[in-house]
Design goal:
2 domains; disordered N terminus; four-stranded antiparallel β-sheet; mainly beta; Immunoglobulin-like; single chain
Length: about 270
């Protein structure tokens, strides 16, 4: 019994000292140390950024990391914010890792679309707080970090061929050959191509839509896009086909939250 009492005395004294410091308001505020920023994922929907921190507790009492907030700015304009749960134990005189995960959706940066589209990278700033629950209440540890994020690219398109055939007395069959290239480090899912088709300067099809196939990272595929157009209203274009001519495809390509204009042209040889 005496041995047990001897063992408990230091613990009780330590606890009393901590409680006394707590009563006197002399508990030290936990410290926050930034470790690294990692781009965890990049795709056509958005980018995931992970900020790793270490939270250090200089006190004799255990605390808890209760959660975090973040605000994200791209090229100086705030585009998103969020909260993260906590529940991470912060031991007495110890430390604990805590990660702030930020998700940027390109659709949320729509007002920056032109700037985003033209740059391989964009400047970002993340700021917020990591909150610690302590015996004296919740303490907020503020942080700020800035850097640059890679911007994914929509597929490149090149009109490499086209054939024009009269399918019937009322319809013309146009088959377009497109080379689709993926400039990204990741697999490119199917994008959507919306376009008008012109033959010798005459619009022969409007508001057409094609879904592009998946393309491997840094890969290229050739895609055939058939388009049936009515000869009604395209008589002038059809009348010049045998003398060669010019195909034009104008519209937009989009995937995820990204979109850009498309303007392709191909000279047709004489038949």
């Amino acid at each position: 019994m005496r041995r047990l009492a001897l063992l408990l005395v230091p613990l009780l004294l330590s606890g009393c000292a901590s409680l006394q410091r707590l009563a006197e308001g002399t508990l030290e505020k936990p410290r926050l140390r930034f470790e690294r920023a990692t781009v965890a994922a990049v795709d056509l929907e958005g980018t995931t950024l992970v900020l790793d921190f270490t939270v250090e507790n200089p006190n004799d009492l255990a605390f808890e990391v209760a959660g975090a907030t973040w605000r994200l700015a791209i090229e100086g304009a705030e585009v998103a914010e969020g909260e993260l749960p906590g529940g991470v134990a912060l031991p007495a005189r110890g430390k604990a890792p805590f990660a702030v995960t930020v998700r940027l959706l390109w659709a949320d940066a729509a007002r920056l679309a032109e700037q985003v589209r033209r740059q391989p990278e964009v400047a970002y700033r993340v700021e917020g707080s990591i909150d610690v629950e302590s015996p004296v209440g919740r303490l907020s540890l503020s942080y700020q970090h800035q850097g640059r994020l890679p911007v994914p690219r929509l597929p490149g398109l090149r009109l490499v061929g086209g054939s024009l055939e009269v399918a019937s007395f009322t319809e013309l069959e146009v088959e377009l050959s497109l080379d689709v290239t993926n400039p990204n480090e990741f697999l490119l899912p199917g994008a959507t191509l919306r376009f008008d088709l012109l033959v010798n300067g005459v619009v022969v099809a409007t508001a057409r839509e094609a879904t592009l196939r998946r393309v491997d990272a840094h890969g290229e595929v050739r895609l055939a896009v058939p388009v049936r157009v009515s000869l009604v209203g395209a008589g002038r274009a059809a009348g010049t086909l045998h003398g060669g001519g010019r195909l034009q495809l104008r519209g937009t390509i989009s995937a995820g939250g990204l979109e850009r204009p498309v303007d392709l042209e191909l000279e047709l040889g004489r038949r």
